[in-house]
Amino acid sequence: MKVKKIEHIGIAVKSIEEALKYYEGVLGLECYNIEEVADQKVRTAFLRIGDIKIELLESTSDDGAIARHIEKRGEGVQHIAFAVEGIEEALADVSAKGLQLIDSKPRKGAENLNIAFLHPKSTLGVLTEFCEE
Ligand code: ZN
Fold first, then answer.
1. Residues with CB under 5 A from ligand 1 (ion)
2. Which of 44, 109, 123, 132 could form a disulfide with 115 if both were Cys (CB 3.0 to 4.6 A apart)?
3. pLDDT for 60-70, tens place per residue?
């Protein structure tokens, strides 16, 4: 399999509007897209830094993954997303190597990317997302 680059870093926040006061107001980055991903129960905001992005994740429901993350660990880094070449093959490859998948097949994520998550138990504690355009 081939990992091409870090596509984005996912950061759980309680409020995108509040978080943008820091990311835009202090750091001077620019949010270029906010969208809701209904099946993940999140609103996402994207900011570009050079070749990679920050994805701010705000829960739209009390029982979503982001709500649970914030409840357990507070706001902060939630996942790292790697751009891979051939996401289905990449998933089959890591699965064959014994890693546990959260998504056995890719699904549509924010920014119309095909995404799938690997279980942090298999990735040294880092919730890992594979994505492909
Ligand atoms: Zn992500």
1. 10, 55, 81, 129
2. 109
3. 999 999 999 99
